[in-house]
Amino acid sequence: MRKDEKKCTTSGIQTKHLVLVITKIGLGLSQLSNTKNKLTFGYKSKKEVVSIIKYAIKEKINFFDTANSYGETESIIGELKKKEKLELTIATKAGLKKNGKRSFNTRYLENQLDQSLRKLKIDRLNIFMLNKPTIKDIYNNDLVYFLEKLKKKGKIEKSGIIIGDKRGFNQIIKNKSLDFFSILFNLLDTDNLDLINNIYKHKKKVIIRSPLNSGLLSGKFDLLNKFKKGDVRLKIIKNNDYTNKIKKINLIKDRFNLSNKDLLTLSLSFVLRNKSISSVLVGCSSLKQIKEIIFYSKRLSKINNDKFDEIVDFSRKISNKFKTSSENF
Fold first, then answer.
1. d(CA 281, CA 32)
2. Looking at the domain assignment, is residue 200 inside a domain?
3. How far apart are CA 219 and CA 245, in angstroms?
4. Is residue 18 part of a domain?
């Protein structure tokens, strides 16, 4: 997994510089968080969650993204054999509290990290992400220096930030102490393309979340087929957002004569073919879903580059016409 190791000094703190090799597709575990309450929407047995993780490993996916707030997923990863975990790159995050509020108090963040390490049954985390701090949060809490200290203590190998409010981040991405940035980006939400290219320009790693726009780009939703009661996506996508996103999808399908399967393939190709992107986190709630996504990701779109660029440009134009909000947690 590690290709290179050398010592570097940043702000007076000496750390080991480790190059992590992560697969182009990573598995986000947020949809597998409900393993306790059978009466609640989204329930998955622990056995089913393990089968999904094991299948991903079998298919050579080595990047897994979890969090303290993702139910028992950290503990489930922790129960993997030590040899298996050594072959994985594990990312977890902190900053979002159970009450939905954010805290970037460094004592709180380190406490959350320590809990994650215990659950994962590891001494050092591959990637530790801060969950959507604003630029003000970063400066007020001296978060970059805090992340450097975690590296010095040997608790983490790499650090990163999940970007929500991107104002001011064109400056922070230049900081040599930060390694990864997680960005919302897909065929329907293209606003962050310039930010992604700028991060890549500064030789940082870009992790994409929501490549299928909360599942809407899987081709399985229309104006009549909406999310079921209890689905966490209802907190993200309001009625007007849902309607406008489906309209955008239908315009893309009609303009380029795409079937639902074509749409899924194109949506995966849109992110996987981008050389500025290091890894794309897919979320799956069943073994069937991850098998389907892996199958179509291997096919990728056979559309030539000119046609592909035409689709991307069209998507950006209609994104400006039908304004929709992005995720908000």
1. 14
2. yes
3. 12
4. yes
Instruction: Extract the tokens encoding 63.
Output: 């990047």
Does residue 125 fall inside a structural domain?
yes
Q: Using CA atoms, how far apart are residues 205 and 180, in angstroms rounded to an integer?
A: 5
The token pair that represents 93 in the structure block: 């995050």
Compute the distance between CA of residue 66 and CA of residue 89 in angstroms, rounded to an integer: 11
Tokens representing 282 are 């897919």
User: Residue 250 has which token pair?
Assistant: 């239908």
Given phi > 0 = left and psi -120 to 50 = alpha, else beta, which region is 242?
A: alpha
Number of domains in the chain: 1
Question: Is-above-0.70 flag for pTM?
Answer: yes
Crossing angle of helices 239-256/260-272, nearest 10°? 100
Query: What does the pLDDT look like over 9-27, one tens digit per residue?
Result: 333 333 344 567 899 999 9
- Look at strands 89-94 and 125-131 and give their pairing: parallel
Q: Is residue 226 part of a domain?
A: no
What value does the mean pLDDT take over residues 103-120?
Answer: 97
User: Does residue 178 contact residue 172 with C-beta atoms inside 8 Å?
Assistant: yes
Alpha-carbon span 121 to 15, nearest angstrom: 23
**Kind of pairing between the strands at 156-162 and 125-131:** parallel
